[in-house]
């Protein structure tokens, strides 16, 4: 399945960087594909339904985790005890491998002896599951060299496992939408939240950024070799999806899939400081005529100029000569020119220099650039202004569904 070099990369990762949870796991059944889900404080019925809807030739790796003893999470684990067989009394994993339904591998990280450190949170839970998936791909238990990742409350489209075609991509992101809550004011807030996400990714793509993809852990699929190359999910309580994709985009393309959408939960959880729940709460009952909620579209024009400069520059002096005063302000504020000089000194050829520049100016640095311009003199704008951005004139290229965009236009 893998070239000698790819195999070496995977072997090194599994030996040196993989979490130990999967070392002893051997499954006496083969699967076509694998899906990883972290589960903390989830309802058993939701996950049982997702498992039942999966193709029978697929494997679900469920990492039930908690940072402390948590009755609801322990009840979730007890629920799956009724379906699974444990290989031994001390084992922290169990399986259901009946051939008439999808396979299930449950990892116990919610007992006192196996709690997830709070500061490592969902990132570690995803990493445990994805590391096990990589091991099973490597030993031939799973045939597809792709690690799928979603969340416990997601609904997957029927073509979920068939959307991805063989390619040199480092990863893929599925199209998505959120289920709309019943109250009308919450519907509006959810549409606005999706608009904010789509505005950001649409603006990045318009500017020529290779980081213009949605960064949601519930819609990611990862090339197994690329996963090993970037050393897996970051062990973070939040933002693990953003930082993983940020690393993956540096070694290969991230492809935006155009098939059926993954349907995400509208719940307003505040378990993490960023994310859907927090984002939607901030948009409830806003005055859409007066409140500035969105990045200024002009920011992305300056980003486009900077990206073009970095792509074509052969020296740091050529970058420093750019005439845009806002970019010059960013240079001063970030002190990035000193970094560029070091990259230039270490680069053997101009193509190496340009590659190093663009790897440094990654998704995280581009977000910092956008925030610098916002704080400088390009403040956030209202709904009416943001809808004039050029990327909203081609709705088919956006992440948000056309019908939801039209509903928002009616509010402007």
Can you give a write-up of this model?
- Helix content is 42%, strand content 11%.
- The chain is α/β, with parallel strands linked by helices.
- The strands form two sheets. It has an eight-stranded mixed sheet with strand order 3-4-2-1-5-8-6-9, with helices on both faces.
- Helix 1 packs across helix 4 (121-138), helix 9 (298-312) packs antiparallel against helix 13 and helix 12 packs antiparallel against helix 13.
Provide keyphrases for this structure.
alpha/beta; 42% helix; 11% strand; 412 residues; 8-stranded mixed beta sheet; Spore Coat Polysaccharide Biosynthesis Protein SpsA, Chain A; two-stranded parallel sheet
How is this structure best summarized?
With 412 residues, the protein is an alpha/beta fold.
The rounded distance between the terminal residues' Cα atoms is 53 Å
What would CATH call the homologous superfamily of the largest domain? Answer: Spore Coat Polysaccharide Biosynthesis Protein SpsA, Chain A
Topology as a string of helices (H) and strands (E): HEHEHEEHEEEHEHHEEHHHHHHHHH
Share in helix: 40-55%
User: In CATH, what is the class of the largest domain?
Assistant: Alpha Beta
Mean pLDDT: 94
Structural class: alpha/beta
**Tally of separate helices:** 16
């Amino acid at each position: 399945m893998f070239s000698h070099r790819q195999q070496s990369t995977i072997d090194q990762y599994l030996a040196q960087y993989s979490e130990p949870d999967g070392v002893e796991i051997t499954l006496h059944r083969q699967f076509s594909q694998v899906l990883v889900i972290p589960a903390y404080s989830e309802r058993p019925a939701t996950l049982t339904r997702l498992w039942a809807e999966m193709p029978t030739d697929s494997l679900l790796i469920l990492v039930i985790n908690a940072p402390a003893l948590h009755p609801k999470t322990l009840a979730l684990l007890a629920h799956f005890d009724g379906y699974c067989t444990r290989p031994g009394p001390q084992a922290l994993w169990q399986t259901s491998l009946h051939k008439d339904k999808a396979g299930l591998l449950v990892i116990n990280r919610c007992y006192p002896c196996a709690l997830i450190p709070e500061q490592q949170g969902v990132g570690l839970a995803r990493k445990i599951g994805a590391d096990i998936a990589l091991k099973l791909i490597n030993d031939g238990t799973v045939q597809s060299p792709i690690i799928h990742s979603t969340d416990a409350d997601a609904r997957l489209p029927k073509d979920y496992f068939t959307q991805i075609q063989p390619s040199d991509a480092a990863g893929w992101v599925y199209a998505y939408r959120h289920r709309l809550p019943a109250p009308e004011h919450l519907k509006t807030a959810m549409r606005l939240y999706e608009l904010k996400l789509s505005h950001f990714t649409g603006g990045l793509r318009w500017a020529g950024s290779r980081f213009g993809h949605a960064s949601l852990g519930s819609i990611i699929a990862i090339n197994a070799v690329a996963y090993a190359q970037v050393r897996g999910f970051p062990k973070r309580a939040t933002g693990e999806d953003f930082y993983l994709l940020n690393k993956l985009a540096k070694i290969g393309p991230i492809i935006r899939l155009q098939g059926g959408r993954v349907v995400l939960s509208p719940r307003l959880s505040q378990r993490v400081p960023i994310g859907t729940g927090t984002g939607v709460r901030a948009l409830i009952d806003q005055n859409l005529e007066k409140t500035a909620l969105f990045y200024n579209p002009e920011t992305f024009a300056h980003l486009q100029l900077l990206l073009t400069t970095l792509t074509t520059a052969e020296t740091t002096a050529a970058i420093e000569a750019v005439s845009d005063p806002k970019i010059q302000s960013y240079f001063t504020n970030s002190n990035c020119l000193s970094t560029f000089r070091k990259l230039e000194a270490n680069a053997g050829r101009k193509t190496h220099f340009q590659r190093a520049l663009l790897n440094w100016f990654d998704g995280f640095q581009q977000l910092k650039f956008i925030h610098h311009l916002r704080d400088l003199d390009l403040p956030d704008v209202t709904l009416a202004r943001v809808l004039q951005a050029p990327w909203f004139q081609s709705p088919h290229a956006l992440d948000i569904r056309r019908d939801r965009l039209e509903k928002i236009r009616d509010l402007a």
